[in-house]
Amino acid sequence: MKSFLFAFFLFCTFSNAQSLLKETTQINDSVDYYLEIASFNKEDKHSFNKAIVYTEKAIDYAKKQKLDDKLPECYLILGNIYYDLEKTDTAIENYIRSINLYKVQEPNSDLALAYYSLGKCYLEKNKVELSEVYFKKASEIYEKLNFKDAIQLINIQKGIIQKNKKNYNKAISIFSSIINSINNDAFINTKVEAYYQIGEIELINNRYDQAIENFDWALELNESNSKNVQLQKKILKQLSVTHKYKKDFSKSQAYLEEYVDIVDSLGNYYNHSLTENTFDKIQFDKQLKTIEQLDKDKKIQQRSLRFNKLISILSIALISILSLLSLSLYKNNKIRISTNKLLKEKNKELTIEKNKAERASKARAEFLATVSHELRTPLNAINGITYLLLNEKPKATQLNYLKSLEFSGKYLLTFINDILEINRLESDKVLVEKINFNLVELIDNIKISFNEFIEENNINFHLLVDKSFNPNIIGDPTKISQIIINLVNNAIKFSKNGDVWLSIHKKSESNNKITLSFEVKDNGIGIPKDKQATIFESFSQGSVEVNRTYGGTGLGLSIVKKIVEILGSEIHLDSDTNRGTTLTFDLTFKKGKEEKKDKEESISKEKLDSGKQKKILLVEDNKINQMITQKMLEQKGIPSHTIDNGEEAIEHLKENGYDLVLMDVHLPGINGTEATLEIRKFNPTIPIIALTAISLNENREMLLSYGMDEVIMKPFVPEEFYEILFRFLTKTEE
To answer: 128 to each of 93, 111, 272, how far by Cα in Å?
Structure first.
């Protein structure tokens, strides 16, 4: 019986021991256990390396057991350890991990502490703005949780920031508020720090007695309560410095000795806490674990890829066999289906491309119309005002300037037309004018228009024109101007402080024709040999550097080449880097006759007699265009009345009689075409002439279809304007 009882006792004891061992093992293998061991090693044994090791074990355990709610606390503790070791960058990494994990939970004091700690790190790295952001986030959480004493932790940092910004009064106010607010012994270090910071400000302001007073309060409060060694060290150092400034060297020496003793003890403390080798080893071990995990993942992926590859090979083999069988059975049918499908796809592609081309063509037409209107409207003002000034008997000193302005305006108008009609240049639809003009006068006007540009670039300009031929020829002066102006402009632009030659000489002559050779030469930067093949292409300038240095669109030589080809010739280039450029071309003209002067004046005067006592209604919304058109009419003695919108023009014409209406197409409200339709309902005979800045020829027919009698394009060419005007006024008179 006794043996049985003894055996039963041993069995119970063994069972209890096993149960206790199992419970102890479960306790040991937990996040809280590892964190407690880490805290013990850091606070009591001052062994930072073991503290880091156990914190890392806590992190690994939490990850394995999927304890996501424990991970942020682990990273926060690890960040605090690295912060105490002055490993600020590593501390920041762990604080950020902690914050990102805390964000998925309800805001709590630990999240606020993480924000606060991250703010301290950035403040130590002198990233003040960033630190303020995180202090603010921490403060918002503490206020929400009503942790008033904890808010003082934030305030002490705000005070330090203000001190660093030299806002001393604001900083002292913050520190004083902290001192008066803290009654909890748990935050006594914050109060000590506030006294210390006030002392530093007083020391900066050379108020040594006040500084010593605050340092003494800080030291006394620290020694009687928290006994924070780090605080004591920096207070003693500042007391030594302040007494030295007061020339109390005995006290300064005494505080300095206390400071040195603490520094020595702290040095030994940290030297035994964590060596650099230990820190590097911990980081290396973490990297090694990561590499091992990546290696495992790679091997798993390789096995998976090999298996997938085998499956793919088998699948391909099976599909190939089935395909061959299907091909032998349905070959003809598949060919027919494939052909039909291909035809359908091609038809679909052609339809899509056709629609794209139509949309592109429509978009280009709309773009050209818009650009034409926006450029021609202000150009009308420039050319119109120039014409008016030339007719107001300008001073002799002003005449050359106005002539140059008139010539430049006309050239600019022509240049805009050529840019807008570049597609016509490429499709050979451009008409070449055959009019009589004086080539020498044309070249002289071009030279005058470049005078200012020549002076700006310090150019020696040489104009060499053969005197052996009659300068009156029949051709297209506008296109000749475009060619010469583009070539001379390039020569001046790329030859700053150099020389430019424009030469024209007779090459051959017959009874009614003459062939002239044109040459534009400079000694500028030249064109590299490898760029000459593409220099005549649109938007090409040789290199990006040339474009950035000298500007321009790269259209000049492209336009010149196309115009020369339209005129039945070709242009030749001879150039090299830093050797200058020579461009030559030959043109054949019919011989012309000397033009009679003042022809325009006699025609205008003749038409003027027919236009007297006529009355014109001008419908125009642009004030500058109103002024120009009225002045041009006044110069011919024709009275006019101006209205700036279509609605009023319609009502005004119902009650008043006029001999002619000048109708702007683009008006606010009812536009010119709609107004014309309304006028034709009650007055089908009055001449209505459209004024428009649209340059596309096909629009003229559209405008005439609304009941308009003629179209005048802006900018006005005075001769054409008066000719059309008097033609219709003469008809009404008849």
So the answer is: 18, 20, 33
| Structure token digits, residue 394 | 């300008």
Q: Closest Cα partner for 714 from 349, 481, 251, 373?
A: 373
The alpha carbon of residue 242 and the mean position of all alpha carbons in its chain are separated, in whole angstroms, by 55
Q: Are strands 472-475 and 580-591 parallel, antiparallel or unpaired?
A: antiparallel
The three-class DSSP label of residue 593 is: coil
3-state secondary structure 215-268: HHHHHHHHHHCCCCHHHHHHHHHHHHHHHHHCCCHHHHHHHHHHHHHHHHHHHH
| Cα 725 from Cα 615, distance rounded (Å) | 12
8 Å CB contact between 650 and 676: no
Q: Which of 11-20, 209-218, 390-399, 708-717 has the lowest mean pLDDT?
A: 11-20
**pLDDT tens for each residue of 41-70:** 877 776 778 888 888 888 888 888 888 888
DSSP state of 187: G
Say how many residues make up the chain: 734
Token pair of 530, please? 């490898």
Which regions of 104-190 does DSSP assign to beta strands (E)? none
Of 238, 218, 234, 237, nearest to 226 by C-alpha is 218
Cα 220 to Cα 228: distance, rounded to the nearest angstrom: 12
Helices (H), 391-472: 396-420, 422-426, 439-449, 451-456
DSSP string, 518-566: EEEEE-SS---GGGTTTTTSTT--S-HHHHHHH---S-HHHHHHHHHHH
Query: Looking at the DSSP assignment, which residues form a beta bridge with residue 591?
Result: 473
